[in-house]
Amino acid sequence: MRRRRVLAACGHGFQAGGDVILPSACRALLDGQFKGSLYNLYGPAEITTACTAHEATAEHAQSDVIPIGLPLDGVSVRVLSPELEPVATGGHR
Predict the structure, then answer these.
(1) Whether 56 contacts 39, CB under 8 Å
(2) What is the pLDDT of residue 92?
(3) CA 92, CA 56: separation in Å to the nearest integer?
(4) Which of 36, 64, 87, 91 is within CB 3.0–4.6 Å of 79 for a Cys-Cys bond?
(5) Is 86 helix (H, G, I), strand (E, B) or coil?
(6) Global pTM?
(7) Rounded distance between C-alpha atoms, residue 25 and residue 15, angstroms
(8) From CA 86, how far away is CA 63, in angstroms rounded?
(9) What is the 3-state secondary structure (H, E, C) of 13-72?
(10) Going residue by residue through the chain (93 aa), what tens digit of pLDDT does each one get?
């Protein structure tokens, strides 16, 4: 339920999806005059939808990657390596 409310709250925010969002882009937005919430959305490239969401904060923007977040309500997600092996929670390439 919380994740569904997170996306509904994006009326006062910015949603990024469709490709990797660079931490430098997050820093530029969050360090400027933008006062809303920034969400990194992730979903299959074949369709225009999101299956995970993560609120990117100024703290996240200081790291090397922005997380893709948690699955939305009613969605299950498997993250695989290039070798099609499951990636541990919190893992990345």
Answers:
(1) yes
(2) 59
(3) 16
(4) 87
(5) strand
(6) 0.50
(7) 13
(8) 23
(9) EEEECCCCCCHHHHHHHHCCCCCCEEEEEECCCCCCCCCEEEEECHHHHCCCCCCCCEEC
(10) 344 444 444 456 777 766 778 888 888 888 887 878 888 877 666 555 778 888 888 888 888 888 888 888 888 888 888 899 988 876 655
40 closest CA partner among 62, 68, 65: 68
d(CA 86, CA 47): 23
8 phi, psi to nearest 5 deg:
-65, -30
Contacts of residue 34, defined as CB under 8 A and 6 or more positions apart, other chains included, come to 14
Pairing of strands 37-42, 52-56: antiparallel
What is the distance between the alpha carbons of residues 39 and 67, in angstroms, rounded to a whole number? Answer: 10
CA 83 to each of CA 50, 57, 89: distance values in angstroms, whole numbers, following the listed order: 24, 31, 17
* Other residues' Cβ atoms within 10 Å of the Cβ of residue 40: 22
DSSP class of 73: T
